[in-house]
Amino acid sequence: MSVGTRAAPRVRTPDPKVAAPRRGSLRRSLLRALPVSPAAVLLLLFLAGPIGYCAYIAFTDLQLTGQASSSFVGLDNFRTAFQDEAFLNAVWLTLVFTVLSSLVGQNTLGLALAALMQRASKPVRTVVGGIVVTAWVLPEVVAGFLLYAFFRREGTLNAVLDWLHLPSQNWLFTLPILAVSFANVWRGTAFSMLVYSAALNEIPKEITEAAEVDGAGGWRRMWHITLPMIRRSIGTNLMLNTLQTLSVFGLIWVMTRGGPSGKSQTLPLFMYEQAFQKSMIGYGTAVALLLLVVGSLFSVVYMRLLRTEV
Question: Using CA atoms, how far apart are residues 28 and 21, in angstroms rounded to an integer?
């Protein structure tokens, strides 16, 4: 070979012994995915498809009546929402309703019931558990009518207050958001109780017994032992409860219909009013997307909580 000439680069041919296992691995992956492919197709068809179509509608001026065709309006629906005092009021009431009934009410009461039932006798656990679960399995409309009868001016609550010679009032008119928040707590606490009961049963008894021997009281054991050990259950329960509470519609609609004067109109009710009562489907769908964003923000916070190991 003459000086200055370079040897031709060697072309590597794929080793059949290496390529064959790769093809086999790909084939096995496809075979494993085959049983779930119908479910994936159904999810794309009935979940991703409608969500994508709704996202498109949110950028149009589509209406139910009096319109031959819709047109693309860009971000106009979202600008209208953030300039609408009724929408801002619905956002505020949604946050109040979620914090009171989910983050504070259902979460705290469910944990308290689960902790008390750990030490209660079997008959007490059976009776209390049956009552709480019965409220949970009731249809939302039925629960709404029951709580409406409880809070109305001539209802059970005012009858009890009159019997105790305490002042009564029309709770659904003066404090509607508190009334519907209590109703959601009454109906949904069972889920939190079941989640926390399962989590408390997983705590080794040796740890709590050692803490008792060391002189730790009930509150110290709860704060320093129980809560840290069930942190992941708390995060899961908060996420599921919050997402469910953000979408509550039937309970509030039956009790107050968002009134009086919008004092209990959360985002689902505001969205329903704009889309189906005022026939502004595009604007109502834009509000629904904003509600989806709010739920996503809560989910991100809780998912970060769930990543933290105990």
Answer: 10
